[in-house]
Design a protein that fits this description.
The protein is an alpha+beta fold and about 210 residues long. The chain is about 35% helix and about 20% strand.
Length: about 210
């Protein structure tokens, strides 16, 4: 069951990335006015215009997770608790991890901006944010936007594939942070997911 849930998380991440890339290649359709999330067109424009930095992927996933401090989370007092590196880490632009005996999973996915001109980064970010929001509204029946976390973030639950996991996804310029937790995880609350989200966001930005 855990493996099935992990595969579903991977599918969701891949779908979002593909949609985002298609939008960044020139599609700038406006969002519908009946959005399930609280983010408006102005919110997306403002966040994109303020963040133009491009973050570089560190291919050493072991060093990535061991440079973070997870001791404030509910399942461990250790800075670096037991973890597994996910198979999707082999794709060359992401690191994927499992913690808490597989009940907590997260990934850092870096979109390739090598062919994006510096003055076009904000536009590419905005396009991806728009497509990401539209995809979230298709994937989840319950959505809550999270303000003051990255450029854009939401918590999703009750997905269309009937998974019982809860997901927090965050955009930080060209980086997608995706966190998924099982109901059995001690930190299944929104607050605990956001706490991890802040740890990962701080790592990306440092």
């Amino acid at each position: 069951m855990r493996k099935l849930i992990q595969q579903k998380s991977v599918i969701i991440i891949g779908t979002i990335i593909l949609l985002g890339l298609s939008y960044s290649c020139g599609n700038s359709k406006e969002q519908e006015s009946d959005s399930l999330l609280e983010y408006t067109e102005d919110d997306l424009e403002n966040s994109s215009s303020e963040v133009a930095k491009v973050y570089t992927f560190n291919q050493d996933c072991k060093a990535t997770i061991e440079n973070m401090d997870f001791s404030s989370l509910c399942f461990s007092d250790e800075k670096t608790p037991a973890y597994k590196i996910g198979e999707m880490s082999n794709f060359g632009n992401r690191c994927q991890f499992e913690l808490a005996d597989g009940q907590l999973r997260f990934a850092l996915v870096y979109r390739d901006y090598s062919e994006v001109a510096p003055d076009e980064v904000a536009m590419a970010n905005q396009a991806f944010q728009q497509s990401h929001q539209k995809t979230a509204e298709m994937m989840y029946k319950k959505l809550n936007s999270v303000k003051d976390l990255g450029d854009y973030a939401f918590i999703g639950a009750d997905s269309i594939d009937n998974s019982d996991e809860k997901v927090l996804e965050i955009l930080v310029s060209n980086v997608l942070i995706s966190i998924a937790a099982d109901p059995e995880y001690c930190g299944f609350s929104d607050e605990e997911l956001i706490k991890l989200g802040r740890i990962l966001t701080a790592y990306v930005k440092k």
